[in-house]
Amino acid sequence: MSHKVTIPIGPYHPLQEEPEFYKLIVDGEKVLDVDVRIGWNHRGIEKLSESKSFDQSAYLVERICGICSTSHPFAFVNAVEDIDDIHVPERALYIRTIIGELERIHSHLLWLGLAGHFLGYNTVFMWAWRYREPVLDMFEAISGNRNNYAMMKVGGVRRDIDNTEIPRYKKILNDEVLPAVEMFRGAVLDDPVLAARLKGVGILTREDAIDYSALGPTARASGYDVDIRRDEPYAAYGKVKWNVITRKEGDVFAKAVVRILELIESIKIVNQCLDDLPEGPIDENVKQVSPGDGIGHHEAPRGEVIHIVRCDGTNRPVRHKVRAPTFMNFPTFKKTIVGQTIADATIILAAIDPCYCCTERLTVVNKKDKMVYDAHNLIHMSQHRTWDMGKSLGLSDSELIKRMGKKIE
Fold first, then answer.
1. Are the C-beta atoms of 17 and 66 separated by less than 8 Å?
2. What is the mean pLDDT of the chain?
């Protein structure tokens, strides 16, 4: 006998870095449908920008995303510079690329740690965040801040990179971060439990990725080969050698593999930019922007972010439109979760790396208002499924405890 139950996830939940509301319709363990509601975190950024100067707006849009705080100002300055085809000094373009890729490294490591936690692989969680720290330390050394670096400005960057520090930065990347990423690659790709747990889960086909206009690792893991850094090069991306990572499977495992391999490509890009960093000024000192419209983009860790700016000849935007990658990626949840189990819902949602903020409110109640599941229950279900997968593959308790840090009962 069918017994449908509604499970709300959000609008505040630790998986969602900003408030969003997902309503799962389930029958037993199986997800039958999902409804998604947005609009819980409207901050009026676009309207606020119209009251700010171009210089102030770069700081403002940096607050759109706390994790990828340079992605929006990167796209914003590209948009304003597009209005007048502003020349940006070569050294500033390389520094912009370095900052953009360092941000991708720390963002992907953050995602990897969270994904490990939701699967019960808490050792991966701790290691990933451990090796994210040196990257944040590099940001602090370059900009003075571990987040919200305030590096981007129209016509250049606000801070230079000290040439004498470059050997130290390369040592951090190549002697600390890269070996850790190689370790993660082996640990994830060769782990039979993770393969059994994630392969075939939450599949987004290439056709669906195109139909939903998915972006970033979400699209590339489905074989949709799209990356604005290669397709319309900007900053120094057209001057360094790197590869766009794709997989064709479209499942959660493929999304994890794409992000891990992209870490290696980002390190490769930063190394080349540090080696080839040109001498010269870092700022064009733009005083005036002509009337007109400009479009700027940047391949953020979650996918392409777009800013459109209209100027009337004053020192501020009269219209400013922002499109973040999660806006395009989160509707794919509708295609990937239906037919899956409740235990997989959290990792499927996390696999698109949704950009929300971190507050928890998740409870499942029945018709008598009695609590059935809370956030802890759902994460435990996901971890327990990983444990069961390991046992079905013949792994002993001690082998699983070595991977997951504890016995899941």
1. yes
2. 88
Assess contact for 317 and 50: CB atoms under 8 A.
yes
- State the Cα–Cα distance between residues 326 and 323, nearest whole angstrom: 9
CA atoms within a 13 Å half-sphere pointing along the CA-CB vector of 149 = 33
Q: Tens digit of pLDDT for each residue in 306-358?
A: 999 999 999 999 999 998 888 888 889 888 988 888 888 878 888 888 765 32
**On the CB side of 61, how many CA atoms lie within 13 Å of its CA?**
34
Residues 6+ apart with CB under 8 A from 223: 206, 209, 246, 247, 248, 250
Residue 265 identity (one-letter amino acid): E
Q: Are 24 and 345 in contact (CB under 8 A)?
A: yes
Average pLDDT over residues 238-265: 96
Tokens of 312: 């009337």
The helices-and-strands tally (H runs, E runs) of the chain is 17, 10
Nearest-angstrom CA–CA distance, 150 and 157: 9
**In this predicted structure, what is the pLDDT of residue 382?**
72
Q: pLDDT above 70 covers what percent of the chain?
A: 92
Cα angle at 305 between 265 and 135, to 5 degrees?
A: 40
| Bridging pattern class, strands 156-157 and 317-323 | unpaired
State the amino acid at position 130 in one-letter form. R
Most confident of 111-120, 122-131, 192-201, 225-234: 225-234
Contacts 24+ apart (CB under 8 A), 283-286: 283/89, 283/92, 283/153, 283/155, 283/156, 283/157, 283/158, 284/86, 284/87, 284/88, 284/89, 284/92, 284/155, 284/156, 285/155, 285/156, 286/86, 286/154, 286/155
pTM of the complete model: 0.85
CA nearest to 158, candidates 220, 95, 215: 95
For 49, half-sphere exposure in the C-beta direction (CA atoms, 13 angstrom radius) is 29
Q: Is 22 helix (H, G, I), strand (E, B) or coil?
A: strand
CA distance 152 to 102: 14
Cis amide prior to 217 (ω within 30 degrees)? no
The SS3 call for residue 166 is helix
